[in-house]
């Protein structure tokens, strides 16, 4: 991990993300790319006359405020590159991450629920949906980023092998224990123990060429995958939840949703998503 990108909007939640990114940067000797999105009306960006001068003025003003904001004690000794763009945070963070070769996005989030969540969603959810690289979502000040106990939601399908390998590679520290959580659902989605074990054996045979990690699998029965993962992670004393996500968009996302986004939105624990 060499570059970590953090969208900053001056809120307490984005500062939680910036603090977490700083700790990860110190641990991995990485650079923090602090990204501030300055939304401006389209007419200011495309208009003639005095509009271009106004854009330059507001960009300079934002840069000045941003540089002042970044004068934090917890950033001492961390290489920080401030970036100010007139972009929409939820749709173009991934483009900036690609442009700068970032390895991880760290987002602060307060989460939403009920009708607001259904109709509006959150910027963090949209970043998760669009990101091609892992996204770490934090909702509070994280005191430790060593993440000694990690819980990963997994359905043991073949498409989860790649995010599983990426996650275990990222957390290959000897002090980190990675547990996999399988949630068995009721009704037509219910699977017998024999069915689940066959899928787990096939998964580890292809992913690890070994069945040694089967001892780290936890099975739970719940009415939703989200509740099963969050409750199990808390029982395990996890410091972090890892979720594979399809990043569904448009109508597919509207009707089917994304479990990874839901867990990231509702868990009080930090959540890291990996794109399938």
From TrEMBL:
Q: Where is the UspA domain?
A: 1-139, 150-274
As for family, the record states: Belongs to the universal stress protein A family.
Q: What is this protein called?
A: Universal stress protein
InterPro entries xrefs:
Rossmann-like_a/b/a_fold (IPR014729), Universal_stress_UspA (IPR006015), UspA (IPR006016)
Supply the Pfam families for this chain.
Usp
């Amino acid at each position: 991990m060499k570059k970590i990108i953090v969208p900053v909007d001056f809120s307490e939640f984005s500062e939680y993300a910036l603090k977490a990114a700083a700790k990860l940067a110190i641990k991995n000797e990485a650079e923090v790319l602090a990204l501030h999105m300055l939304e401006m009306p389209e007419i200011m960006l495309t208009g003639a006359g005095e509009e271009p001068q106004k854009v330059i003025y507001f960009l300079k003003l934002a840069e000045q405020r941003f540089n002042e904001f970044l004068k934090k004690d917890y950033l001492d000794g961390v290489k920080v590159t401030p970036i100010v763009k007139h972009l929409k945070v939820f749709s173009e963070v991934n483009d900036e991450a690609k442009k700068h070769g970032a390895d991880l996005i760290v987002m602060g989030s307060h989460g939403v629920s009920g009708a607001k969540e259904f109709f509006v969603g959150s910027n963090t959810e949209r970043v998760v949906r669009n990101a091609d690289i892992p996204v770490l979502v934090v909702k509070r000040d994280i005191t430790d980023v060593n993440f000694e106990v990690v819980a990963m939601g997994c359905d043991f399908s073949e498409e989860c092998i790649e995010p599983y390998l990426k996650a275990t590679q990222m957390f290959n520290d000897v002090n980190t224990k990675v547990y996999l959580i399988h949630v068995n659902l009721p009704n037509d989605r219910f699977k017998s123990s024999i069915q689940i074990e066959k899928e787990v054996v096939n998964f580890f045979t292809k992913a690890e060429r070994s069945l040694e990690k089967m001892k780290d699998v936890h099975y739970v029965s719940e009415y939703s995958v989200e509740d099963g993962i969050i409750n199990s992670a808390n029982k395990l004393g996890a410091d972090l939840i890892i979720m594979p996500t399809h990043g569904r968009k448009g109508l597919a996302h509207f009707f089917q949703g994304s479990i990874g986004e839901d867990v990231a939105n509702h868990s009080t624990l930090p959540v890291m998503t990996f794109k399938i």
